[in-house]
């Protein structure tokens, strides 16, 4: 039987060992995933984050972000984060919908009333709840990034939902997104982001949906020039760390990383608002035909079955209610 003294010694040794695995002096190299090119607001936000962390850790935590999906497409990157072969990343909630159900709530169509409303929700207790669920799935969110409103763009003009009927619309890997597109009367085709341009070109799909900056940076406007401002979802994004990496950090490093991520999010949000305007101008100059949807009522009404399927489970219904009640 262990004596009390021996037990104390064993506990102290365990604590020392834990401390050793995260000794402050040990240099660490972190690999980061990003889907966007280096000049995109997300990329600049991530660069700001890694600079702040390098400064504040005296170069002990050295992070390198591989921009432009160099480490693979989104679905692979999510798996790699959960396995710890990618240490940090910036993800849109849509790709996480099938893995962490509460992310579906933040993806639901026509839910957020404004950018300010969305910031209050994600930066508050509701955002924390979703973040906790993500952390339990191996992805620890540190800060929420903006991704604006997503709209439809197609190879033929779309003014009312009926115009979409029978069209093949690209979606991310998400059952919720498949159901949103179905509810609009179109056919959903899940495809990686990096395959959308050629799929539009070859006729595999007739359209996709995204925000102004992605429509512009990917040059999708060259092959699907009709953009209808449906603004059907304001699904946000997170800057996150693999939980395998996170668990090995001491509290001081965790606090430092969180603060740096939040500062980078402030910067990313400023860049985002500006880039939305610039991208809109660029695509119009490049030949995009914009249909301004002024009455979103008919689009919104079609989303009833989506809410029935995804927002009636008591936990989801409660989150939706709390989001709606958030001023
Ligand atoms: C972009 C988003 C990416 C990815 C992409 C897509 O707007 O920033 O993370 O979700 O859309 O549609 O695959």
TrEMBL record:
Keywords linked to the UniProt accession: Signal
Keyword Signal included in the entry's annotation: yes
Pfam families recorded: DctP
Domain of life: Bacteria
GO CC term, one of those recorded: outer membrane-bounded periplasmic space
GO molecular function ontology, one term from the record: carbohydrate binding
Signal peptide (from-to): 1-27
Gene Ontology terms: biological process: transmembrane transport
NCBIfam families: dctP (TIGR00787), TRAP_S1 (NF037995)
Protein name from the UniProt record: C4-dicarboxylate ABC transporter
Species the sequence originates in: Teichococcus aestuarii
Source taxonomy: Bacteria, Pseudomonadati, Pseudomonadota, Alphaproteobacteria, Acetobacterales
